[in-house]
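Revision sheet: structure tokens.
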Amino acid sequence: MCGLFASNDPRVFKTSLNFESKLDFRGPDAQSGLISFNGWGLYHVRLSIIGLSDTYNQPFIDSEGNLIVYNGEIFNYKQLGQQKFKIKFDSDTHFLSKYLSSGKCNFNELEGFFAFIRIDKFGNLTHAVRDKFGVKPLYYFSDSEGKLSFSSEASLLAELYQKNYSQEKINRYKSFRACLTSETLFSDVRSVDPGSCLINGQYFNPISIIEECSDLNFDPDIDLLDEIVESSVNSRLVSDVSIGLLYSGGIDSNLIHTYAPKLNKFTSGHSGDYDVETAEELSEVNIEIIESRKYLRLAKDMIAAKGEPLGVPNEVALASLAKNWSSRGGKVMLSGEAADEFFGGYDKIYSWALRSDSFDINEVFKRYAYSNSKHSFEYFQSLFDGTERLNPFNRLRAFFIKYHLPVLFRRLDFSLMFAGVEGREPLASEALFRYACSLNQDSLFNNNQGKMPLRLLLEKRSSGKLAFKPKVGFPIDVKKIITGKKALDRKEIYNSWIKFNLEEIA
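Predicted:
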């Protein structure tokens, strides 16, 4: 895992901006310093996961003089290396460099998560690419003269170009706890879209896959699902460092654990939290209780490092347990993101869509947004453009995958990288996505409880004790942490959290 910066703006060499303070937490093992290459300024930091030698530090310049800076992991690089070039690569960085120079690129072939920039030997930007589901961040800013700057952190670009928070975007944060598109909270700072190259356009379109697969209407094949999940989990276990598991009371982390039972399991929260209580019932789970003072101190440190407000309270808990794992020498943690989006895991809103004959955007907004405003509604409504051909359930699924899922990945990426730990999401694979989209939608639910195929798989692979437990949101009472007074309801918790974050960035 890494952090990167690249710019062809000559002003970057004159700035007083401290790149180290903005990026070094993303790569404690190696820092390149700001280097010059054919009209570009580049900075790269590295968290060493595969190929621990300094040989694999970046920026990487190939034998022909082309350069790449790269953040991520490509898990099938050895297979593709043999297939494409008859070469046994010992690093995905070396493979990627060769792959990009060969003209044989099909980014849909790459299994993993990544964000990378390639500059050829003449100083031309040839690639600025982000993975299919938006696991790894890649932000950019383009000035009036067409100069481009990229970074793993949006706040670095905002500080470099003196871009302030947009009040319009802050209002969206209040409604959705994030910007749901390629926009950021900062004026004119944007994100490369998931599944796209800034130069060549989109290479992966989840809406097209939903359209393609939904006509199949298969009944669940649990044995096939077992094979897909096992393959995906095993691919995420390739590492030269220790791997842990972000453990909750949910079915996703429990399912992953059945394929990797030797992983160290970690959960954190306040005494009485659902995840903590569930973990206490089980053996061999590392439980970290976060007292209020520690929680607030860590939250403030995270906001300062990110330069942006946090989205949800459990980001702090994730960073805390990741620090615990890092202190033991661990550098990788697996997580269960994407299962809810693929398989209808948000029970209330997905079951509503399944029962609906028509798509009611007002109802979706009411169920999804945290605060109401005309502007937020119009913005939200626009996110469903281009999905009119889909039924209500698949329109909702397209939204969650295209807009909601990258937000979750950003939260996880920052929370773990803040602690010097890489996050991997075994369930966020194209194969599992296609499988989920090909199923009869009714088969995903039983009595309004979603993710039924995954629940049946967990029941098959374990005692089944946790397979049919209801989904429970993360119940941290932020108001009590901040003020000492217990919140009356979730709205009070949410309002306290938003107020705390906005006061910190102010």
